[in-house]
Specification:
Elements lengths: L1 H10 L5 H11 L3 E5 L1 H5 L11 E5 L5 E4 L4 E5 L2 H16 L2
Parallel strand pairs: 1-2
Antiparallel strand pairs: 1-3, 3-4
């Protein structure tokens, strides 16, 4: 059943916008950038080359990049964390 649904979505994504969005979220997990509020206020997540990035206020001076189950990047410099997030997309495209 899922193969038929994904086949329909892939063939005509504009006919199924909500389903297309949901299937992309399933394929590319959401990433949360965690840090203190003052660090997050200056960030523009739309500049990160990854489809689903969100800010999350957290009691830490550093930046953490996390998926639902665990964090995968941690650094005091945002550019390092940004690079790690963008690497997820590069790794996904080489599979």
């Amino acid at each position: 059943v899922w193969l038929i649904v994904f086949g329909m979505i892939n063939a005509n994504p504009s006919n199924y916008p909500t389903a297309t969005h949901a299937s992309l979220m399933f394929e590319y997990e959401s990433v949360f950038i965690k840090s203190k509020k003052s660090n997050l206020e200056s960030l523009d997540v739309s500049e990160i080359k990854y489809p689903f990035v969100y800010k999350y206020v957290y009691d830490a001076n550093e930046y953490l990049a996390c998926k639902i189950n665990s964090c995968f990047s941690y650094d005091g410099e945002f550019e390092k964390v940004k690079k790690d997030i963008e690497t997820l997309l590069k790794n996904k495209s080489t599979l």
